């Protein structure tokens, strides 16, 4: 109960903006001695400034304009102490008065706004209930080993929980079109059915039900939803905590989330753009597959008309180059040359694991990584691991590769070059920087890529262990 009340209270102490024809909102802050006030709002994962207000009459400000604000939850920020007061902006009623107190910006007196009065009344109510819950929990702790007293107090706590839920349901039912109801409903969990059977299976059933119905009480048709702090946190929890962090699983969860909204809506545009950027910049190994998935399944299918054609073409081209070298794909079979001129292909090599090391003799990072890789090769060569060092220098610079092989004691590697780039290895493996590492299994499947040499021992130990387990099945 305490956790529920705290969560709901926190949701209302953090949320967002923007919708109608004209707005005129009077804001008074008793005890505020500055002539400047910041007006802002939330937008997905960001907090943005709407306006900076100035007034010689200390403590009184007007938020006004000829155009409507987008519906949602807004905030005022005092300076220099940065205290925050929050309020609702409904789509159909944007003329009202708010009166805060600098000593407690959490609450406000409201005039002329049913939505904001409802919001404030609920804040007061939930605050009172939280106080009651804290008191009961304190009594439970004091009850110690008195089982009957603890049971009675826990029953009292359950009754309070039922009271809060009933109050919440009534508010939503009686005020369905308010921004406050949108926020309240979005934090109501779908009732969990009773599952029977093996405890582990019951646990799984509960997880799958919860995940499947996670977004049931979010109204993605309401534009105010985007301008609330809780939405982004809720989505991030779904993707980062409820979803296994394998790229395919994350991609499927993104599809589920994005399918909840109209593709012409502002929320769809905001979140598709946000997650494309997030996974384009992600440092997690394998997350480039999520980036490729979003481009191929949304941008390349004309679901992002806001993107300029030139940018879209670059995105499609990048996805096309990345797709063949994603983890789980079969690596390209390239033929390159040893120092004596004989050729060697990846498919010809006999190995359990192949570390492909793309390097350049003039690369500063390579000079630091290569000695570590030499040591790694010595420790793992008897464990079915081979290292293929592919020097990326071309034409007259290829001679530097062989000089470096000797200088760096790389003679234990399978050293190859391709001075005329006949194999097109840079294109086939999307080599943009050096050093770049791929680890393949005996079937040339890409197991991992993009890791540093110092990470290889731990990663290799795990893969060897996994291979042993599979062989034992």
3D architecture notes:
By secondary structure, this protein is of the alpha+beta class. It folds into three domains: 1-188, Immunoglobulin-like (Sandwich), CATH 2.60.40; 199-325; 335-472, 3-Layer(aba) Sandwich (Glutaredoxin). It contains 14 helices and 15 strands. The strands form four sheets. The chain has a five-stranded mixed beta sheet. A hairpin with a 2-residue loop joins strand 2 and strand 3. Helix 1 (2-12) runs antiparallel to helix 2 (114-143), helix 6 packs antiparallel against helix 7 (247-259) and helix 8 runs antiparallel to helix 9 (288-299). The longest helix is centred in the N-terminal third of the chain and has 30 residues, at 114-143. The radius of gyration is 30 Å and the shape is elongated. The protein starts with a helix and ends with a helix.
In a few lines, what is going on in this structure?
The chain is an alpha+beta fold and about 475 residues long. The protein folds into 3 domains: about 1-190, Immunoglobulin-like; about 200-325; about 335-470, Glutaredoxin (3-Layer(aba) Sandwich).
């Amino acid at each position: 109960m305490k956790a529920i009340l705290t969560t709901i209270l926190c949701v209302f102490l953090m949320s967002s903006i923007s919708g109608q024809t004209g707005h005129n909102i009077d804001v008074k802050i008793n005890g505020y001695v500055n002539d400047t006030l910041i007006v802002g709002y939330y937008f997905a994962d960001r907090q943005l400034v709407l306006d900076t207000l100035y007034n010689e009459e200390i403590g009184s400000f007007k938020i006004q304009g000829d155009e409507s604000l987008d519906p949602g939850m807004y905030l005022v920020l005092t300076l220099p102490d940065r205290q925050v007061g929050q309020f609702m902006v409904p789509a159909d009623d944007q003329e009202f008065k708010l009166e805060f107190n600098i000593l407690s910006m959490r609450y406000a007196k409201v005039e002329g706004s049913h939505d904001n009065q409802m919001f404030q009344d609920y804040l007061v109510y939930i605050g009172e209930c939280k106080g009651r819950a804290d008191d009961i929990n304190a009594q439970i702790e004091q009850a110690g080993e008195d089982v009957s007293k603890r049971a009675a107090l826990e029953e009292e706590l359950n009754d309070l929980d039922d009271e809060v839920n009933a109050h919440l349901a009534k508010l939503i039912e009686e005020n369905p079109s308010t921004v406050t109801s949108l926020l309240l409903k979005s934090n109501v969990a779908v009732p969990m059915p009773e599952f029977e059977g093996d405890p582990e299976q019951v646990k799984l059933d509960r997880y799958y039900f919860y995940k499947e119905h996670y977004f049931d009480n979010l109204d993605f048709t309401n534009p105010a939803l985007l301008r609330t702090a809780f939405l982004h946190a809720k989505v991030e929890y779904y993707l980062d905590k409820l979803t296994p962090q394998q790229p395919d699983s994350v991609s499927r969860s993104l599809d589920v989330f994005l399918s909840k909204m109209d593709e012409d809506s502002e929320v769809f545009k905001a979140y598709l753009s946000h997650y494309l950027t997030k996974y384009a910049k992600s440092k997690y190994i394998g997350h480039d597959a999520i980036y490729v998935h979003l481009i191929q399944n949304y941008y390349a299918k004309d679901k992002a008309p806001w993107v300029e054609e030139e940018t879209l073409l670059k995105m499609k081209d990048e996805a096309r180059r990345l797709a063949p070298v994603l983890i789980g794909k079969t690596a390209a079979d390239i033929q390159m040359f040893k120092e004596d001129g004989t050729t060697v292909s990846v498919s010809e090599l006999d190995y359990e694991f192949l570390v492909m090391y793309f390097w350049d003799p003039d690369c500063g990072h390579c000079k630091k990584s290569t000695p570590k890789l030499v040591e790694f090769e010595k420790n793992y060569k008897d464990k079915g691991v081979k290292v293929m060092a592919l020097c990326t220098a071309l034409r007259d610079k290829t001679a530097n590769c062989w000089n470096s092989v000797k200088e760096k004691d790389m003679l234990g590697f399978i050293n190859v070059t391709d001075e005329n780039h006949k194999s097109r290895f840079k294109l086939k493996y999307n080599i943009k920087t050096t050093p770049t590492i791929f680890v393949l299994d005996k079937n040339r499947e890409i197991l991992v890529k993009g890791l540093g040499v110092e990470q290889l021992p731990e990663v290799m130990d795990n893969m060897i262990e996994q291979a042993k387990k599979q062989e034992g099945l």
